[in-house]
């Protein structure tokens, strides 16, 4: 009986960490943005939504998912007066570490665009490049929690965005 139970637990752990099981994922994120001094916008919290199109990579260098992201930073004060909300849309490629553990690290690389509700003190809408990573913990095959950190480089309008969230996967 112990061998059967141990075998079932092992298979369940392997299945829980397999990103190839589901074709789609949606994520809800609570975030905190550390903005560059050149942006003149104070640090602040926000939220985000993500959609992942999961892949079955044939090689280790191939992405495990393509991600479409939206991040919103609540209206924050500028250092020189005034305030602005920040909207960011992006496209990222995700690489998952292939392991049998429910705790899976990942890396991301992408591009995007950001828009200010009020462009004050030289803050300009524009494009950015993203590099980052995080860890995902599988609660079961289709639900997981994750933490991520990514650097967004857009010249003067750069920032470091951290977040935690929940992910639901579907579509076998």
Features:
1 helix; mainly beta; Porin; single chain; 9% helix; elongated; 172 residues
Provide structural commentary.
There is one protein chain. The chain contains one helix and eight strands; from the N terminus they run αββββββββ. By secondary structure, it is mostly beta strands. It has a single domain, classed as Beta Barrel (Porin), CATH 2.40.160.20. Strands 1-2-3-4-5-6-7-8 form an eight-stranded antiparallel barrel. A hairpin with a 5-residue loop joins strand 3 and strand 4.
Secondary-structure element series:
HEEEEEEEE
Which structural class do you get from the secondary structure elements?
mainly beta
Write down the overall geometry. Answer: elongated
Count of all domains: 1
- Tell me the number of helical segments per DSSP (H or I, 4 or more residues long): 1
Helix content: under 10%
What is the average per-residue confidence, as pLDDT, rounded to a whole number? 86
Radius of gyration: 18 Å
Examine the secondary-structure arrangement and name the CATH architecture.
Beta Barrel
Task: Report the top-level CATH class.
Answer: Mainly Beta
CATH topology title: Porin
Low-confidence stretches: 4-17
Give the strand line-up of the largest sheet: 1-2-3-4-5-6-7-8
- Give the N-to-C terminal Cα separation: 31 Å
The largest sheet is: 8 strands, antiparallel, barrel
Strand content: over 45%
Count of distinct strands: 8
In short:
With 172 residues, this protein is mainly beta. The chain is built from one helix and eight strands, in the order αββββββββ. The chain is elongated and about 50 Å long.
